[in-house]
Automatic annotation (TrEMBL):
<feature type="region of interest" description="Disordered">
    <location>
        <begin position="338"/>
        <end position="371"/>
    </location>
</feature>
<dbReference type="InterPro" id="IPR031160">
    <property type="entry name" value="F_BAR_dom"/>
</dbReference>
<feature type="compositionally biased region" description="Basic and acidic residues">
    <location>
        <begin position="440"/>
        <end position="454"/>
    </location>
</feature>
<feature type="region of interest" description="Disordered">
    <location>
        <begin position="440"/>
        <end position="480"/>
    </location>
</feature>
<dbReference type="Pfam" id="PF00611">
    <property type="entry name" value="FCH"/>
</dbReference>
<dbReference type="InterPro" id="IPR036028">
    <property type="entry name" value="SH3-like_dom_sf"/>
</dbReference>
<dbReference type="InterPro" id="IPR011072">
    <property type="entry name" value="HR1_rho-bd"/>
</dbReference>
<feature type="compositionally biased region" description="Polar residues">
    <location>
        <begin position="290"/>
        <end position="299"/>
    </location>
</feature>
<dbReference type="Pfam" id="PF25610">
    <property type="entry name" value="HR1_TOCA"/>
</dbReference>
<feature type="region of interest" description="Disordered">
    <location>
        <begin position="290"/>
        <end position="317"/>
    </location>
</feature>
<keyword id="KW-0472">Membrane</keyword>
<dbReference type="InterPro" id="IPR027267">
    <property type="entry name" value="AH/BAR_dom_sf"/>
</dbReference>
<keyword id="KW-0963">Cytoplasm</keyword>
<feature type="compositionally biased region" description="Polar residues">
    <location>
        <begin position="455"/>
        <end position="480"/>
    </location>
</feature>
<dbReference type="Pfam" id="PF00018">
    <property type="entry name" value="SH3_1"/>
</dbReference>
<feature type="domain" description="F-BAR">
    <location>
        <begin position="1"/>
        <end position="262"/>
    </location>
</feature>
<keyword id="KW-0728">SH3 domain</keyword>
Length: 566
């Protein structure tokens, strides 16, 4: 099908149609640009969303569960999907839109040229038609004049009143008009032949060529538009496998969630290691006898240590501890009381403003976990320092072999600094390993800070140790100056007043008294509580044989009587 033969008389419609094609191409370009903008904006907002939900540095511990790690993996996949939308936007803008823009520019140029050629051919045909019209009108006028002169001659020849000369004059005029009419006729015939030839050529050759050029131009535009649409589909198709991979990654992240592992991690993170409380026995304070409750009795809820009034109760007066072991100062006790933990129930870690260096303020399991993390961190830092030291030593050897590269002595200072760092890290590692051994029950009691530092620098110390079960926690640290009086008690005699019984306790582990003021106890031994733990780690108790003294609070399970303090 050819426009030149089928649409030979539709020049104006072809002109409008080709312009509409160009307008559509420009509109498609605007569509691609706006779509690219939407894709880029979507990718940007998606990446911003992922960034907003990325775990913060301070919350890394909360992202150890499988469900939280799966969420982080999902965020990574969503980020990759956003990147693919950016790829789509860049390809649409950089490739498809540019090709279409080039096509529109080329189509506009060709269309302008072809329309000019068509207008020129139409103008030539119009001029030929005007020339023919002029020749025709001239021939018509000459023919009219010829017919009129012939009629005048016939009238003059028939009129007997006219002279011969007048008749001859009319004949001469008639012959001139006839001859002029013949010339105009010949000219008209020639012009008609020329016009017909030009018109035939116009409608059969020249103008169909212009129509064909416009048709080819429009078909090229359509074909190029088809290629661009296919190119858009190809761009989408190329990112689909990657997006599918991201979706599979999200599904894989969902499949990695393990409820059993998360439950186990919760146990490992929050398990305190304390034993569950047993039934609270009834104690008759008048006889000093205790009656075990039956199974159907409701056990009494143990009172938390931090809910008991500061200082022990004696005759309605609050008493302060004296200098037993030199560790019961009033200022320290006031701080310790704020950080005391619940007694008689599973304890949970209490966040304090300043956590102790050995994490002794945490339950046993959590303390061991924190210490292990600290030890792993120190070992990692030591490995880094060792690698740095090896690099410095190698560089020193290179300098020694080729002095032109540098002076080996300049590295001595760095080597010395590295050695100091390593020594410090070793001391730190030994200290925390000691804390870990203590937490695991391999050390009999805590050393003071000075003793810890001394034990790290030397292979051993002269501190007395005692043997106990491996599962027992470490005993609180002790200091010297036994029975040192406190302010306001010059003699320290209040320390030996009779204390009322404020509760009872059961020994979770055996304990041997090796310090003055402490008393030994056996596992599951029942005792009376005379004075609560004021944050120093020791509780005053009275045994069944009447002896009184201090035992480690972490070794016993306490129950208090005063319901007002629960």
């Amino acid at each position: 099908m050819s426009w030149g033969t089928e649409l030979w008389d539709q020049w104006d419609n072809i002109n409008v149609h080709t312009q509409k094609g160009i307008d559509f191409s420009e509109r498609y370009i605007h569509f691609l640009k706006e779509r690219s903008s939407v894709e880029m904006d979507y990718a940007s907002k998606l990446k911003k969303l992922v960034k907003n939900f990325q775990p913060k540095k301070r919350d890394e511990d909360e992202y150890q569960f499988t469900w939280s790690r799966a969420f982080v993996d999902m965020l990574k996949e969503v980020y990759d999907m956003a990147s693919q939308h950016e790829v789509v936007a860049e390809n649409l803008t950089g490739t498809v839109s540019r090709n279409l823009q080039d096509l529109v520019t080329e189509t506009k140029t060709d269309r302008k040229k072809y329309l000019q050629d068509g207008a020129r051919l139409q103008e030539q045909l119009r001029q030929s038609s005007q020339t023919l019209d002029k020749a025709k009108r001239k021939y018509e006028k000459a023919h009219y004049d010829s017919e009129r002169s012939l009629d005048n001659y016939r009238k003059a020849d028939a009129d007997i009143n006219l002279s011969r000369a007048e008749v001859e004059k009319h004949r001469v005029v008639m012959n001139g008009k006839v001859q002029q009419c013949e010339e105009c006729k010949n000219e008209y015939a020639a012009q008609l032949q020329t016009h017909n030839n030009h018109q035939t050529e116009f409608y059969s050759q020249t103008m169909p060529q212009v129509f064909q050029q416009l048709q080819d131009m429009d078909e090229r535009r359509i074909h190029k538009l088809q290629e661009c649409v296919l190119q858009c589909a190809e761009i989408e198709k190329n990112v689909v496998p990657i997006i599918n991979t991201c979706i599979e990654g999200i599904a894989k992240a969902a499949g990695s969630i393990n409820t059993a592992a998360d439950s186990k991690l919760v146990i490992e993170r929050y398990k305190s290691g304390f034993a569950m409380p047993e039934d609270v026995p009834f104690e008759d304070l008048s006889t000093g006898q205790s009656i075990e409750p039956s199974n159907n009795q409701t056990p009494r809820i143990p009172a938390p240590a931090n809910s008991v009034k500061n200082a022990t109760v004696s005759g309605g007066k609050g008493k302060k501890r004296g200098g037993l072991f030199g560790i019961f100062g009033s200022s320290k006790a006031s701080v310790a009381r704020k950080n005391s933990k619940l007694r008689g129930k599973v304890s949970t870690p209490v966040k304090v403003d300043e956590q102790k260096e050995d994490f002794s303020d945490l339950p046993p399991n959590q303390r061991r976990r924190k210490l292990q993390q600290k030890i792993d961190s120190i070992k990692k830092e030591m490995a880094k320092e060792h690698s740095e030291r090896e690099g410095i030593l190698k560089l020193k050897d290179v300098y020694a072999g080729n002095p032109a590269l540098g002076d080996p002595s300049t590295l001595d200072k760095k080597i010395e600094e590295n050695s100091q760092k390593l020594d410090g890290l070793r001391q730190e590692l030994l200290k925390y390993e000691g804390y870990m051994a203590e937490a695991e029950g391999k050390v009999s009691r805590r050393h003071s800070a000075s003793e810890d530092s001394r034990s790290l620098s030397t292979s051993g110390s002269g501190d007395t140790q005692h043997t106990q079960q491996v599962s027992a926690p470490g005993t609180p640290q002790v200091q010297h100056n036994v029975y040192q009086p406190i302010d306001g008690d010059e003699d320290g005699e209040d320390e030996f007043d009779i204390f009322p019984v404020i509760g009872h306790c059961r020994a979770l582990y055996p304990f041997e008294a090796v310090n003055e003021g402490s008393v030994p106890m056996g596992e599951n031994e029942e005792m009376q509580i005379l004075e609560q733990d004021q944050g120093d780690g020791w509780t005053r108790v009275r045994k069944g044989d009447g002896s009184e003294g201090f035992v480690p609070t972490s070794y016993i399970e306490c129950h208090y009587y005063d319901a007002d303090q629960v």
